[in-house]
Automatic annotation (TrEMBL):
Pfam families: MmgE_PrpD_C, MmgE_PrpD_N. GO terms for molecular function: lyase activity. Residues 276-428 form the MmgE/PrpD C-terminal domain. This is 2-methylcitrate dehydratase PrpD. Gene3D superfamilies: 2-methylcitrate dehydratase PrpD (1.10.4100.10). Belongs to the PrpD family. The lineage of its organism: Bacteria, Pseudomonadati, Pseudomonadota, Alphaproteobacteria, Hyphomicrobiales. Residues 23-251 form the MmgE/PrpD N-terminal domain. InterPro entries: MmgE/PrpD_sf (IPR036148), MmgE/PrpD_sf_1 (IPR042183), MmgE/PrpD_sf_2 (IPR042188), MmgE_PrpD (IPR005656), MmgE_PrpD_C (IPR045337), MmgE_PrpD_N (IPR045336).
Amino acid sequence: MPLTHPNRPLPAASSRSTVTLSRLASYIGGVSVAKMSEATLQSVKDCVLDCVTAAIAGSQETGASAARAVAGSAFGAGRSSVWFTGAMVPASAAVLANCNAASILDLDDGHRAATGHPGAAIIPACLAVAEEVDASWEELAAAIVVGYEVAVRVAAGRDFSRLDTMSTGKWCNYGVAAAVGRLRGLDHDQLVQAMAIAGVHGPNQSAAGYSKVMGNHAKEGIPWSTLTGVVAVDLAASGFTGPTDILDHPAYFEASNIVRGLGRSAAIERVYFKPYSCCRWAHAAIDGLTDILEHDGLRVDAVEHVEVHTFARALKLNNDVDPETLEGAQYSVPFVLGVAAQYGREALLPLSDNRLHDEKAVDFARRVNLFVDPTLDNRFPETTAARIILKTATGQHMREVLYPLGDPDNPMARDKLMEKFDGATRSYDTADFKPAFAAFDEGDYWPLVTLLRQPLRPAGASA
């Protein structure tokens, strides 16, 4: 439940020290579903569908199970659901569990301007708090749009060339604080403080950039960053303050980029969706590989060498040819290419740990070499492009993919997102979710929440 504190007045801050956060807070207060375009509203519906897809698919992974156990035991009772368990906990605990499920398989949505994944933070946070405060569908939708907008803008306001890590946990907390603050009715000054607190208290994540152990459950820090954003709202409402000029230092943020065009368009409309449960930086190469194998009549056993020419950041993934963990596999371009080559695209929806140490996949992965292409590198992060060349004894086959499937410039339409749902959740009986998604699209989110509160049934199990 929300804290039972009064909304205490906050000390006045100098306008010079709150310029960017103040602009964002003014935007947050002015968002209205009545003013949204059909494209924006459809994006909200698609993002909710996609987040639930990822969460169902990832629900039984070890990291997700561990987070559920902690959420159910360490935080007490509340009014937000731990998905698929029936447990009711405070929103801060719910997001720890639900964000883990949504992000653990690397199947969640992303945004090129942010180089990360807003949906696995914003959607669970908004649903958790909507449950607590019994928000209307319109309030929930507005909060989701606000969350994506603020998170993506803060992320895009950084100098990517100076970052030690692209981890989403470094910036999604701003969007969470914005969305949750909107749902809980914070005033302008409280919103400023909530975003400031979330920003300074967010996870460091630097080890995600330098550690060689990418096969771990911490990944991009999305769940803990989301928890930080939720708690920041309670702190701000209780009178707690933060560094309100946090976004106004050129050494860290380009403030003008954060607020430029604010309110004229919606960042959520430019989300990308992922057809494969692995790092987005591998998707262009997967698309190219599978297109060659499906259309050029090339047998996998005829491929002697594989070259992937792409952007430099992709070569900083662990890229183990025989990864030890599922998370490590998600960050290996050679290995996921091996799985796709030997077992097809569907083996990546989702990628499962029964593929680890697969002899055929590893054998293909050993044939893969990665190279930096200066032209494609210059296009990052606007695109995550790759050129893949399969060499045989008699010649070579090449594809260049500038926009992998699911990108706004190569989109997955609603029917493709439903196909993704069917494929990613095929281990479970999810028939009841489709009418719940339809109800959500018509303005009622409670049928979906009701299903999220219930344990999943294996496919084929009797009701």
